[in-house]
Every structure is written in structure tokens, then in C-alpha cells.
Design a protein that fits this description.
The protein is α+β, with helices and mostly antiparallel strands and 133 residues long. It has helices at 7-12, 47-66, 112-124, and strands at 21-27, 33-39, 74-77, 81-88, 91-98, 130-132. The chain has one domain: 3-Layer(aba) Sandwich (Profilin-like), CATH 3.40.1840.10. Helices cover 29% and strands 28% of the residues.
């Protein structure tokens, strides 16, 4: 697991620093929302939650109708950040990540899902910078 207390370890594994995360959403296996956490900072945009919900609905429709393979991950660019949707054992996790540069996008690899699951339990639910919505 990647330590959330050492920002260097995030960069070493291409994972975002906790300060880059604007929000986290947890969805069940059918793509229905279960939990949302957003930063308490000035960032008030919650359109990313709706975008994640719509993407998961489209994914379900495409998989059912076209018999496509399982989703590895989805990455979408918005005005202020990148939305990354990852599958995990109990459903999906959506991370809304602030971009420093317009062309910046995360390099998503197999470390992301365990890191995101650990992040929700050990940081997001306990960090005062995030609030449940």
C-alpha cells in the first residue's frame, strides 16, 4: 500500500497527491451512487458526480447490449480536473483530480485501485478537508 502520510510515495508511483483530490465518489456494482466526499475548500463544482453516474450508466448499457469486456478504468477531462473511474470488488470509485496543466492526465496503472480503496478508508473519511455529501 502507498502511504498517505508521505507525498513522495504518491509521486513515485504516479498516484496523485492528496492535495490534488477534489472529490471521491463510491458507486455500487450497478453504478448507483453510495457515498460522495468533496473538499471543503473553495471548489464547489459537483458536476463531476453526475458525469461519473452517467458514464457508469452508459458503461452498463454498452456492456449489456454489445457484450463488451469488463471495464478497466475510465478517464475523462473536465474544465478543472480529470475524472478517473476505477472498478473495485464492491463497485466503482470515482476520483476527481485537480490538474496543474491543461494537458495533464494521470498515468493509471494497477496501483490505483488498491490505493483508492485504502485512501477512502484511511484518509477521506477522516480528513477534515473532505466532507460527506
Amino acid at each position: 500500500m502507498v502511504s498517505t502520510s508521505n507525498p513522495q510515495s504518491f509521486q513515485a508511483t504516479n498516484l496523485p497527491n492528496i492535495d490534488q483530490i477534489l472529490g471521491v465518489a463510491v458507486f455500487d456494482p450497478k453504478g448507483l451512487p453510495r457515498q460522495y466526499f468533496v473538499t471543503t475548500a473553495k471548489h464547489q463544482d459537483d458536476d463531476w458526480i453526475r458525469l461519473a453516474f452517467q458514464a457508469l450508466g452508459l458503461k452498463q448499457l454498452l456492456m449489456d447490449e454489445m457484450e463488451l469486456p469488463q471495464l478497466d478504468h475510465v478517464m475523462m477531462r473536465t474544465k478543472t480536473g480529470n475524472l478517473v473511474i476505477l472498478p473495485y470488488a464492491q463497485g466503482f470509485i470515482a476520483l476527481y483530480i485537480k490538474r496543474a496543466l491543461p494537458q495533464e492526465q494521470p498515468n493509471i496503472d494497477n496501483h490505483w485501485t488498491p490505493w483508492a480503496c485504502n485512501l477512502i478508508e484511511t484518509v477521506i473519511k477522516q480528513d477534515s478537508r473532505f466532507k460527506a455529501v
